[in-house]
Amino acid sequence: QQKVQQSPESLIVPEGGMASLNCTSSDRNVDYFWWYRQHSGKSPKMLMSIFSNGEKEEGRFTVHLNKASLHTSLHIRDSQPSDSALYLCAASNPAGGYKVVFGSGTRLLVSP
Amino acid sequence: DMKVTQMPRYLIKRMGENVLLECGQDMSHETMYWYRQDPGLGLQLIYISYDVDSNSEGDIPKGYRVSRKKREHFSLILDSAKTNQTSVYFCASSSGTAETLYFGSGTRLTVL
After folding, report:
1. Helix, strand, or coil here: A11?
2. Do B90 and A44 touch (CB under 8 A)?
């Protein structure tokens, strides 16, 4: 059974600071990674996807992927109180029927 | 406007009762999912459906079954609900494998 491990479990950063979140898959055949954001009481929404080695930037958000180590990270610069949420990493393995498996999440709190 | 609709939003049942959770999407997406979310456990995949009558077990299928007779509609059935099935259930859909998941607003199920 594929596992997706996220760290840290929770994170507090000051407003304007940098938040760094980590995610690793235990399945060597994983090919696709996503980051979803879930505000309290709401449903998850896709934030960023990354399928190739390297880095991808969208506004204040940057995601990295190292396929050799099956590790992805999400970095949020100039963090805002509205970024406070549960961040979920998801991974999918084509050989596993493309089932999308989620980690347990990192709860981010941005303090004003 | 892309939408995944879940009914009902809140549901209280007694142990041993049957439960039907319904999900619809208006995007003609092929793939649909049922997840449950418990504190500290992220999203756990119950079932995935690749199209009408093409369903596959996820990581925690025991105690659940699904039905998909129309592409836009995917149901989750709990026969004789148990107290440990108290959870928030999310339905999601995607346009294919390795694509973004769009989530419904969730059903909070309490089994007494």
Report:
1. strand
2. yes
Provide DSSP, A45-59.
Answer: EEEEEE-SSEEEEET
**Comparing B35 with A1, which gets the higher pLDDT?**
B35
Contact B97 A46 (CB under 8 A): no
Contact B43 A88 (CB under 8 A): yes
For residue A88, the SS3 value is strand
> Which among A4, A6, A43 has CB closest to B105?
A43
Which pLDDT band holds residue A97 (cuts at 50, 70, 90)?
A: confident
Positive or negative CA dihedral for A87, A92, A98, A103?
negative
CB < 8 Å to A44, chain B = 43, 90, 101, 103
The pLDDT value recorded for residue A94 is 81
Q: Do B97 and A31 touch (CB under 8 A)?
A: no
User: How far from A86 is each of A37, B53, B84, CA to CA, in Å?
Assistant: 6, 33, 23
Helix (H), strand (E) at residue B17? none
What's at A105, amino acid-wise?
Answer: G
pLDDT tens figures, A13-52:
999 999 999 999 998 888 899 999 999 999 999 999 999 9
